[in-house]
Amino acid sequence: MPDIxxxxxxxxxxxxxxxxxxxxxxxxxxxxxxxxxxxxxxRNLHYEDQEKEEKMVLFLRRHFFTNMGWIVIAFCLxxxxxxxxxxxxxxxxxxxxxFLGIVGWYMIVFAYAFERFLSWFFNIxxxxxxxxxxxxxxxxxxKDISECRLENIExxxxxxxxxxxxxxxxxxxxxxxxxxxxxxNFESIPFPDKAAEIINDLIPPGxxx
Length: 209
Fold this sequence. Notes:
It is built from four helices and eight strands; from the N terminus they run E-E-H-H-E-E-E-E-H-E-E-H. The protein is of the alpha+beta class. A five-stranded antiparallel sheet has the order 1-2-3-4-5. A three-stranded antiparallel sheet has the order 6-7-8. A hairpin with a 5-residue loop joins strand 7 and strand 8 (183-190). It starts with 37 loop residues before the first strand and ends in a 7-residue tail after the last helix. Residues 7-17 and 22-27 have low confidence and may be disordered.
């Protein structure tokens, strides 16, 4: 499995972003946890290829609610054998074969759910004091990384649309760049307006319109 997060070998100097300018509440300063989708300056968290003096400002991934689709599907698939044995007779099939069939079915359901969870867990967005990074894992063995230096960012905006997104306050952050990629998007992240505000505050003054 790909390695994303690593611990630094040397102690680094403290770095503080002036969060007062973005009006963050205590909610955003909660300790980093296993399923965190929005973290400001997470402690003891570092990523592969992080530069010596580079400091992480934002750790982002898709809102957990975006997993509800595959969770419901996995739950319904898990109920299939129960309903199948309730409404149909399989007495003509040897018990050992029935047992193997059930085990095989649940292995398929587990593999599906596990793959979907890993897809959510490892597809992350990182904002540092030097650049933005979009890490995507199309498969467990392959990763696609897009990044842009802060000085190459031209515009940052956020977008929320739909009832679920508006109610749960998650959406997209659209980042226009002057780099190799014209646009980098952080999709379905919590509090996209706050993330866009922090990124805007990090952009060097000479680049702001």
